[in-house]
Design a protein that fits this description.
alpha+beta; five-stranded mixed beta sheet; 6 helices; about 45% helix
Length: about 150
């Protein structure tokens, strides 16, 4: 079942509104959207194009917009590929807070850091864009990174 274009547009606006102030955090072969202060993750993608989203957070979208998983996955995938310019090969959901991963990130950040020489499987364009923004703002937010 297709989603009407107006509804899809509204869903995407809501996603961008909810995630725009969240931090974009590269961690080795993964790129995360998270909130370190709340110790909460929203989405992450690995360099192979496997995209994970936090089912706990996004469940409200399914309920609010009366979507099934396939419809939502397709909408989220389309938005992410367009706005981040990263190809998604597979969409997965997780019903876990992943606290153990989030707690270890700050400690191991330097060994998993992105550089132009160490892109960890991500494209030159993605890493260059991220590092350019990071040089100016230190903390890269989703709203700074996404393509309009």
């Amino acid at each position: 079942m297709l989603i009407h274009d107006n509804l899809k547009k509204f869903i995407i606006e809501r996603i961008e509104s909810d995630l725009s102030s969240k931090e974009l955090f590269p961690f080795g072969r993964e790129l995360w959207v998270l909130d370190f202060d709340k110790k909460f993750w929203y989405i992450f993608i690995d360099c192979d194009g496997v995209f994970w989203y936090n089912q706990t957070f996004f469940k409200v979208y399914l309920d609010l917009f009366s979507l099934n998983k396939r419809q939502f996955d397709k909408t989220l995938k389309s938005w992410f590929e367009k706005k981040f310019n990263i190809q998604v090969r597979k969409v997965m959901r997780r019903n876990s807070d992943l606290n153990w991963v989030l707690e270890s990130m700050p400690e191991t950040k330097d060994e998993k850091k992105w550089t132009m020489a160490e892109r960890n499987g991500f494209s030159y364009e993605t890493v260059s864009r991220f590092l350019g923004i990071q040089r100016q703002t230190q903390k890269v937010l989703v709203e700074d990174f996404i393509y309009l």
